[in-house]
TrEMBL record:
<dbReference type="InterPro" id="IPR011004">
    <property type="entry name" value="Trimer_LpxA-like_sf"/>
</dbReference>
<feature type="region of interest" description="Disordered">
    <location>
        <begin position="1"/>
        <end position="31"/>
    </location>
</feature>
<feature type="region of interest" description="Disordered">
    <location>
        <begin position="159"/>
        <end position="182"/>
    </location>
</feature>
<dbReference type="InterPro" id="IPR050179">
    <property type="entry name" value="Trans_hexapeptide_repeat"/>
</dbReference>
<dbReference type="InterPro" id="IPR018357">
    <property type="entry name" value="Hexapep_transf_CS"/>
</dbReference>
<dbReference type="Pfam" id="PF00132">
    <property type="entry name" value="Hexapep"/>
</dbReference>
<dbReference type="GO" id="GO:0016740">
    <property type="term" value="F:transferase activity"/>
</dbReference>
<dbReference type="InterPro" id="IPR001451">
    <property type="entry name" value="Hexapep"/>
</dbReference>
<protein>
    <submittedName>
        <fullName>Galactoside O-acetyltransferase 3</fullName>
    </submittedName>
</protein>
<keyword id="KW-0808">Transferase</keyword>
Length: 182
């Protein structure tokens, strides 16, 4: 028998304020009834299109295909190879003009937990950069001109013109940012 505290759905913070909670009562975890959340054929189509985008070097093709899935793609957006938008809810992603999504970066618009799943929009601001291997969680907004370092886990909003790094991603100090530029 577990001695862990009971699961709480009342979480705080700006990201969590923007998430829609979908309770999934029953004996199974929230991923078990996923076909009730999104039609399996739609997820399969999304998966195939995203798979093509992951391996295609053509930015025009990626942007065109992803916009057909409902991703809002601004002008001049660049997707690195192997980058992955959310397969279940790509329509909740907005990537503004001239943003860069790095190699193998992941933009998630859902999270499956034990007793519920949550969905939320992800917004990547104009000229923002998401580093290679970074993961952005649902409900997060990356401000214009912000930078997310490689392999970071973005759990909170990133203000404009701010650089974040780490797991979880935290703002770098001005001294560290200046040293990185030299």
């Amino acid at each position: 028998m577990s001695t862990a505290a009971p699961y709480e759905t009342d979480v705080s913070g700006p990201r969590h304020d923007r998430l829609r909670q979908h309770p999934t009562p029953g004996p199974h975890n929230s991923l078990f009834p996923w076909p009730d959340a999104k039609h399996p054929l739609q997820v399969m189509v999304n998966y195939v299109v995203i798979l093509v985008c992951r391996i295609s070097p053509s930015l025009r093709l990626k942007n065109w295909l992803l916009s057909r899935l409902g991703v809002t793609v601004g002008d001049g957006v660049a997707w690195g190879l192997e980058s992955t938008p959310d397969v279940f809810w790509p329509e909740l992603i907005t990537v503004e003009d001239h943003a860069i999504i790095g190699y193998d970066a992941t933009l998630l618009c859902h999270e499956f937990l034990q007793d519920e799943y949550r969905t939320g929009e992800v917004v990547v601001g104009e000229r923002a950069m998401i580093g290679a291997g970074a993961i952005v969680l649902p409900g997060v907004e990356i401000g214009a001109g912000a930078q997310v370092a490689a392999n970071s886990l973005v759990t909170d909003d990133v203000p404009p013109e701010t650089t974040v790094a780490g797991v979880p991603a935290e703002p770098l100090s001005s001294d560290k940012q200046a040293a990185e530029r030299t």
